[in-house]
Every structure is written in C-alpha cells, then in structure tokens.
Design brief:
single chain, about 375 residues, TIM Barrel, Lyase, Ornithine Decarboxylase, Chain A, domain 1, six-stranded parallel sheet, 19 strands, elongated, binds pyridoxal-5'-phosphate
C-alpha cells in the first residue's frame, strides 16, 4: 500500500461494495455480473477492488483501455478481461498475447481480426442507437457473427450493446432494446454471452430479460446511481482530510490566492491539505465539509494542495474533515459542480491514497 505522508485519503469500504453486489444480484437473477473496473474502478482502486471481488469468487471484469486490461492481467492471470473501449489494429497482437477479450466495434477492427492469424477472443458491439462504438445494420452483423464463428483463430464470446438513456428516457431505451433484439433475431447461433445492461438497466429491467446472460455493473457497484428512486446501495468511497493548521483572522484579513475571502469579524480558518491537484477542483469553493457531525463552509480559492474552511471554537488541529461520504454525499458534490457522480469519483487523482476497509460491521 502507498504510504500516507499527509492526512488526506479516500476510504474505500469493501463491505459496502459487497452489499451493492448482492443488491444488484437480487435484481438480476440467473445472470452473471461483469464488474466494470475501468478508470481505476471509477476512482476506487482497480487492483484492490478486483482483488476483493476475486476473493469472493468473481473471475471476470471489464475495462476500457488496453493499458487498464494489461494492468489487471498482470495482477490476475486467470480472469476474463473484457476491453470495452476501442483497440487499434496494431495492438491486437498485444491483446492476443495477454488473452484480453477485445470488442469488435468497427469494420477496420473486424478486418484486422480476420487477417490476424493469431488466437483472438472477442465480443461484437452493436450500436443500437447511442451512435458510439459498434455496428448498426442487423443483416451485416448477423453475417459477421457467422463469419467470426467459422474462423479457427477467433473465439466470438459475446455480443452486446450499451444504452444511452437507461436512467432517464424509457422511450429511447426501449427503442434501443428493440433494435438490439432485431439484431439477435437475425443471428443463427448466438455467442455464449449476450449482455446489454449497465447499472441502471440492470436494476430496472434485467429481471425481465430471458435473452441476456451477463450485465455490466459500474457505478452502482460503487454505491452510486443516477436513478430516481435510487436502489438500496451503500456509497463505497469517502474523501477525508484533516485540519492541519488554524488561522485566527482579524477583520479585513484575507485568505488564499487572490485574497478573495476576507474576514468581517474575528474568524477562525482551518486549513486542509487537499486541493485541485487531488481532484478537489476549484469549483468546490462554494461547498462544505463535515467536521464532527457539523457542516462548515469552504472559503477562498482552492489551491493546488490546500483549501480553507471557516470553522468555529469546536474545531481543532487534527480533526477530520469529510469532504464527501457521510453528511455530504458524492451526489451533493456533483450537484454543486453541475455534473454527475461518475465524474466526481473518477476525478479523484492518483495523489490521494486509497485506504481499504473490510470486515467492519455495516450499519
Ligand atoms: C460499454 C459500457 N458498459 C457498461 C458501463 C457501466 O455503466 P454504469 O457505470 O452506468 O453501470 C459503461 C460505463 O460507462 C460502459 O461504457
């Protein structure tokens, strides 16, 4: 584990992560979960998250990049790794060597796979309406499937699509679903894996589907969701720092770059060693942190490595400030920043040590 030399860290509660897995299972009977651990497991620490899931018996994961796939492969020689993102033709050799299951998402990759002459395992991606990666035309897709299934050096493991509006627009979702089913109807022999759901779709609809075998669980694995009402999930990550110094300001004395916040009266300012280089971006200046069960306002401009909190007599050097995780949720921070919870957790930088908690009594 990374040594911690400053009191700023992210707590990753693996008991909560497991709670979320079990909760997803309730909504997806007889289906196999593919944990999505791209982008460092949405900021939570891909290797440690996978290690925990591995201990629980999970032997499959999805990432986006080949770099991510190779990092996971090094740590887990015997799991299935599905690369959801695009691969370049020249990199197929690497994917083949390290047994990474690639996504065939374009004609160029399809042709490159055909002519590779090396063993390659793959999934075919259908673009059912999101206009991102994948193929659109059902007849062409069906022919591709047949051709891939006949090739000696290719194992076509799966076919899948991805939804653009699983958490918001049911009409568009259904349109995509219909298009995907039309593709499946054209295929003589389906590959062994058929998967369509992300978190939102898994919780809302997966129970109804007879034709899917797997689902890809990202954000809700980490206890977050865009759904309303939200599923019964437990947030996995809390972001914490400590008050390392307190300044007693006199009226008109100011804090931080630009001297944008100046005291109106005698005020106490606590300094936390976390800033925008940690992913605690400058727009958080309008927010709050929680110290000993009470919310305190962030003031001044957030520095690269520090931020300022307007505190009172109850706060002392060494007290823990929770930036999100308890009274203040990741969703609160996302709302403040006009973004979504995905962006808040994936933006936490490599500088913040992740501390993993396991075996605690869940509340
Ligand atoms: C292709 C694909 N599948 C699954 C997921 C997981 O989605 P979610 O985090 O909403 O569960 C993603 C995330 O972006 C994705 O790109």
């Amino acid at each position: 584990m990374m040594e911690i030399y400053r009191p700023t860290w992210a707590e990753i509660n693996l008991d909560h992560l497991w709670h979320n897995v079990l909760e997803a299972k309730k909504h997806t009977p007889h289906k196999i979960m593919i944990p999505v651990i791209k982008a460092n497991a949405y900021g939570h620490g891909a290797i440690q998250v996978m290690r925990f899931l591995y201990e629980k018996g999970i032997r499959i994961a999805a990432v986006s990049l080949l770099e991510e796939a190779l990092e996971i492969r090094e740590a887990f020689p015997d799991i299935e790794i599905l690369m959801l993102g695009p691969i370049l033709p020249n990199d197929l050799i690497v994917a083949s060597k390290y047994h990474i299951d690639i996504t065939i998402y374009s004609q160029e990759i399809y042709e490159a796979v055909k002519s590779l002459g090396l063993w390659v395992t793959c999934h075919l991606k259908v673009d059912s309406g999101m206009s991102r990666y994948g193929f659109i035309k059902p007849k062409e897709i069906a022919l591709m499937v047949e051709e891939l299934q006949m090739m000696k050096h290719v194992s076509l493991k799966g076919i899948y699509t991805h939804f653009a509006t699983a958490s918001e627009d049911e009409t568009f979702y259904k349109k995509q679903l219909t298009r995907f089913k039309k593709v499946l109807d054209m295929i003589k022999t389906l590959p062994p894996m058929v998967h369509i759901s992300n978190s939102s779709s898994a919780f809302k609809y997966e129970k109804e589907y007879r034709f899917t075998t797997h689902y890809r669980l990202g954000i809700s694995l980490y206890g977050l969701s865009l759904d309303n009402p939200k599923p019964d999930l437990k947030p996995v990550m809390s972001l914490k720092s400590k008050i390392v110094q307190i300044k007693n300001l006199k009226p008109l004395e100011c804090v931080g770059y630009g001297a944008t916040y100046c005291a109106k009266e005698d005020e106490k300012i606590g300094i936390c060693p976390i800033g925008y280089a940690d992913g605690w971006i400058r727009k958080n200046k309008t927010g709050f942190v929680e110290i000993k069960g009470k919310k305190y306002k962030i003031v001044g401009i957030i520095c690269m490595d520090a931020c300022f909190i307007k505190i009172d007599e109850d706060v002392h050097v060494g007290d823990t400030a929770t930036l999100y995780g308890n009274m203040i949720s990741v969703d609160d921070v996302a709302k403040r920043l006009h973004t979504i919870n995905y962006e808040v957790c994936t933006s936490l930088s490599y500088r913040v040590p992740r501390v993993f908690i396991k075996g605690e009594k869940n509340d």
